[in-house]
Amino acid sequence: MSHKRVLVIDEESAFTRFLQDDLERREISVACVYSPGDENSATAFAPNVILADRKMLSWRNAGLLHKLPLVLMTGTDRQWLEDGNEPITAANSQIVATIPKPFEPNMLAELIDRYATDSQKINLDAEYIEALIASNRLLDNLVVEFQSKHALEDGHVTGYEALSRLKTRRAISPATIFSAATEISLEIEATMNVIDQVIKLAAALRQSRKKLPVSFNCSAILLTRSDFVDALFARLQQSPHIGGSVIMEITEENRVANIQIVSEICQMLGQYGLKVSIDDYGTGHSNLDRIAEIPFAELKLDKQIFWAFCNDRVPMTVLGSIIDFCRSRGARTVIEGIETAFHLEKARLLGADQGQGFYWGRAVPPQFLVRDWHGP
User: Angle 15-21-22 (CA atoms, 0-180°, nearest 5)?
Assistant: First the structure.
């Protein structure tokens, strides 16, 4: 597997978001520098090639270029100016190509294959997160995007899920961002920021007469924290109009929470109209006995167990029994990881209610969903 790592120095834009997603699909890891504060984490990313907009280069990031292949966007001059100061040259870097912007990602992928050596360092995402935290840039770099859920029967949109993304390293999963190594206070603050965006979008959708539910992810461990639960209750009390329009998707990952406490909190939250979903079922510690105490209205089958079923490694009876269990409780089921027509056909065969995945598109910023969106 390729371990090519590309650092992009540019302004944040729809183009750089698309570029990150495209290169990651080609198994090329990407991180970005959008401001001087991102340079500490860029060093931890350990790139082996740099793509830079000539206008963004300055003495501040010259240290990042040390002996690395450099692809310049827009311009062919091998030196640049910063606020009229003496020119900073690329003496420590080899400019291997210049390309106009925007460009086709195929063009860049070919240059990367030609000039970047495979990195000997792997699994650097934890170090990258640590560097962001150390430079107090984690929360500033988190953004919220929304992915649609769809009815399997006819494909119509049934709701949206809020997904946390790092602007500078979109491929990192929330499970890596908020691991046991991350301070719980940071996870609480980040989750509350997501909840604020979810409540705002749910209200905007209701105003536009689209009354679609919006969900957010919450680790089970947070529901055992009184400071988080108190803050969540306060948000729900301040927004009584969104009752029934917000869903909390509980994740467990590798941190085990007291399921009895989680169940009690979920029942209390239900009094405010907050619905509960079990996220990523089939991973971590989730099993039917463990979740039976939780008053959930939705269960989401993790894409890995669904793909295993698609590849004939898990029998249909296993997933079918889970769906039957949910149906007996009046809960709907959502299949995650639907990316192809074949996946859609297999999900329909299972008899689940809804689906989610790249087949219908990737997550988008909220301004793509409602008019006149203001703020982050």
Answer: 85
